[in-house]
Structures are given as structure tokens and as C-alpha cells.
Write a structure and sequence with these properties.
Strand content: 15-25%
Helix content: 25-40%
Shape: globular
Number of helices: 3
Order of helices and strands: HHEEEEEEH
CATH class: Alpha Beta
Mean pLDDT: 92
Strand order of the largest sheet: 1-2-3-4-6-5
Radius of gyration: 14 Å
Number of domains: 1
């Protein structure tokens, strides 16, 4: 985990920091080849330059976001935005279910839409995995 991600996690309230830290540990353990960095002010993990998962503090929760999550066909994830993203929101660390997240992360590595080239492709998303 990058120092910037640790700093982001530690800047949250104690309850939210616990959620963020657990999410980061699960993501790092299950996506060992992913690059972690702060992107648009939030921790995001990339595979081959393509964003696949990240989280951010919202007003009332911590949002875990999978860029290609709508294609996972998984209960527990809600559509987010106009592309293929899906999210899960957490208000306590007890809500974070490791087995569920591990399953989603496995799908995040296997099912990807090409967000890296979305601007070059004029808003068109192509499936890459």
C-alpha cells in the first residue's frame, strides 16, 4: 500500500479510517499485481493502467467502487454513474465482508472495461477482459 493511501486512510475519522484500512488491505492482498495510487484525491488500484477498484469517503459512508462492477452480476453491488461502475457503501467496519470483497476483486481482475482509453475512444467503453 502506498504511503499516500495510508495518509488518506489516517485522515478519516476513526470509524471511517478502520473501514478504509480494511478495504486497502483486502485489495492489496487480492490484487497483488495492481498499482495503487491517489487518483482524483482517492485511493485507486490499476491493472495495466486501467482503474479497477477504489474507495472514497462520502458524507455519510465510505464508498467502494468497481469501475467494471455492473458486469460482475453480483448481489450487493449497486450501479453507479452512466458507464459500467458499481458500488457498495459502508458505515461501519463490521459491514465489510472479506469473502464478498475477495469474490468481487477476483471478478475485477477478470472483467474489465477500457476506462484507460475512454477519452481517446470518445466516451466509448470496450471490454478488454
Amino acid at each position: 500500500m502506498q504511503i499516500e493511501t495510508q495518509t488518506y486512510n489516517q485522515s478519516q475519522s476513526p470509524a471511517d479510517a478502520a473501514i478504509c484500512q480494511l478495504l486497502a488491505e483486502l485489495i492489496d492482498a487480492n490484487l497483488p499485481k495492481a498499482e495503487n495510487k491517489i487518483w482524483h484525491a482517492h485511493p485507486v488500484w490499476f491493472l495495466d493502467g486501467n482503474p479497477v477498484v477504489g474507495y472514497s469517503k462520502l458524507k455519510d459512508s465510505v464508498r467502494l467502487l468497481f469501475w467494471s462492477g455492473q458486469s460482475f452480476d453480483e448481489p450487493g453491488l449497486s450501479p453507479e454513474g452512466k458507464f459500467k461502475a458499481a458500488e457498495k457503501r459502508y458505515t461501519s467496519v463490521e459491514q465489510v465482508k472479506a469473502a464478498e470483497i475477495k469474490r468481487w476483486l477476483k471478478k475485477a481482475a477478470a472483467i474489465q472495461w477500457d476506462y484507460k482509453n475512454i477519452v481517446k475512444n470518445k466516451g466509448r467503453l470496450d471490454r478488454i477482459k
